[in-house]
């Protein structure tokens, strides 16, 4: 009998404890709110319909902005593929004010001078023509490419600072046009000059997106293309411009750090390629200085000319292959 009473007391205690726990759990405010919200979302009340409508509108806005960015990227890529790298664009990228006609005249004069100098040194007529054409066509264009690449590199290194200026200006209440003016005044060349052209174009009535496209023709960098897309999307769909440009500045700085890391890792291969490329011309120069008669047949005999031509072709192929192996596009 006592055992039955003990079991009944234990069962009653268990029931009382479970009831107290359920009461305490049910009294949790956060859980009550969560249950009510789930019931509101799953029910057909007006409040539930409004909540679902707001959620769908937010998702649709994010999807629309994402699709707009993807379309802008695709259109920009198509424009870049359609636009050929002409001599006029290379002159603009190098920051030179000469026209294509003036450049061609200067190249022709240089080629004629080299040809006359080779004839004066009593070289073969074939060697004179090849030297005149190579230096008249190749050297000026290589110089233009070198100047354009250096100018674009300097612009890219300074572009993150320009984004920071725009972000700080917008957060302090300045309009975008005033921020661009600050960049044109405070930034060094070529960044300041390019933004000065942009602000002058906007002042005469050109839209901002068209001005940025014109700037991109002069400075074709991925960073400037990203900035152009961000500004175009912001004008069409709205949004927090300062936050978007702050994220863009962080991405640009991360890309710069990655380029520096790749450059450091590939420096040994670059040095090896430079040594291998300079070794044959250096050996020829040293032999010509120390023993000129030994190298004279190479420059006066037609067979030596063919050997020099073949060596130049194979050296060019080797340098091109090595450059492709150590050149990393970022």
What features would you describe in this structure?
It contains 14 helices and no strands. The chain has helices at 2-26, 29-42, 46-82, 87-93, 100-120, 125-171, 176-186, 191-203, 208-218, 222-237, 241-265, 267-290, 292-300, 302-326. By secondary structure, it is mostly helical. Residues 24-29 have low confidence and may be disordered. The longest helix is centred in the middle third of the chain and has 47 residues, at 125-171.
Concise overview:
This protein is mostly helical and 330 residues long. 86% of the residues lie in helices and 0% in strands.
Q: How is the secondary structure organized here?
A:
Elements: H1 2-26, H2 29-42, H3 46-82, H4 87-93, H5 100-120, H6 125-171, H7 176-186, H8 191-203, H9 208-218, H10 222-237, H11 241-265, H12 267-290, H13 292-300, H14 302-326
Helix pairs in contact: 3-10, 4-6, 5-6, 6-7, 6-11, 7-8, 8-9, 9-10, 10-11, 12-13, 12-14, 13-14
Sheet bearing the most strands, described?
Answer: none
User: From the helix content, strand content and strand pairing, which structural class follows?
Assistant: mainly alpha
Calculate the terminal CA-CA distance, rounded to whole Å: 88 Å
Cα Rg: 35 Å
Which whole number gives the mean pLDDT? Answer: 76
Q: Strand fraction band?
A: under 5%
Kindly state the number of beta strands: 0
